[in-house]
Amino acid sequence: MSIVSLADVKTYIGLTTTQDDQLLSALIPTAEAKMERDTGRVFAYSSNVTRTYSTDGAASITVRDLPANGSNTRNVTLGGVTMTAGQGYWELPDRRNPEVSTTVQLRYYDRSRPDWFKADPFWFDKNLDNPRAGIIGSGPNDLVIEGPEGHPQPIPGDVVGMAKAVVALMYWQAKAGASGTVATPTGDLIDLAARDPIGYPEFVRDWKIRTAVMDV
């Protein structure tokens, strides 16, 4: 599912005809791919995606955006063992949109007690009683997550707004060349010589995935 629709973009640009619908339809996924590439995010929602990660034995790992409303249908395996949300792994709310998670915690952080691993109901399956648990790494591609991915509706307004602005810049550059400025019906000015629309660097800074605590 796209971040913005063709109708949304046409309204933003001020188009009422269908002459450029094909061009705009091609630019929408291009713009969204740019935003996702620059932020490391997955904004567009998909219902069934399989991702594989190598945890290297870490307590937490950064993942692609997992919608909270998909936790009931999500299948997560660690080292071939099926994990249960809230017991064997935990999806930590994202700092920008609490409806998604970009960090999965795989075990308890506090290991000050000798029997710390017993707080995890999957301690045996995860081999957490191994004296070297947390010190040794893991096999490659040991974490597999299957299920929905991306931001559920409604997608945050600043993401939708920036998607429109990126598509509009690409559209006017394709139509008019990289010179001059264009005013949208909403009053936004588009500098056709610019690489990115106004506010894009700040958008990337605010939405870029940041790795927080990895191990304690």
Strand content: 15-25%
Helix count, DSSP H or I runs of 4 or more residues: 4
How many structural domains are formed by the residues?
A: 2
Average of the residue pLDDT scores: 85
Strand order of the largest sheet: 1-7-3-4
Low-confidence stretches: 212-216
Roughly how many Å is the radius of gyration?
21 Å
Quantity of strands, as a count = 9
Structural class: alpha+beta
Shape: elongated
Q: What is the rounded distance between the termini?
A: 38 Å
Q: Could you characterize the architecture of this molecule?
A:
The C terminus is likely disordered. Strand 5 and strand 6 form a beta hairpin. This protein has 216 residues and is α+β, with helices and mostly antiparallel strands. It has a four-stranded antiparallel sheet with strand order 1-7-3-4, with no helix packed on it. It is elongated, with a radius of gyration of 21 Å. It has two domains: 92 residues, no CATH class; 104 residues, no CATH class. It has four helices and nine strands.
Describe the secondary structure blueprint for this structure.
Layout: H1 6-13, H2 21-39, E1 46-53, E2 60-67, E3 75-78, E4 81-83, E5 90-93, E6 100-105, E7 143-149, H3 157-176, E8 181-183, E9 189-191, H4 200-207
Helix pairs in contact: 1-3, 2-3
Brief rundown of the structure:
The chain has 4 helices and 9 strands; from the N terminus they run H-H-E-E-E-E-E-E-E-H-E-E-H.
Task: Provide keyphrases for this structure.
about 220 residues, four-stranded antiparallel beta sheet, disordered C terminus, 2 domains, 9 strands, three-stranded antiparallel beta sheet, 4 helices
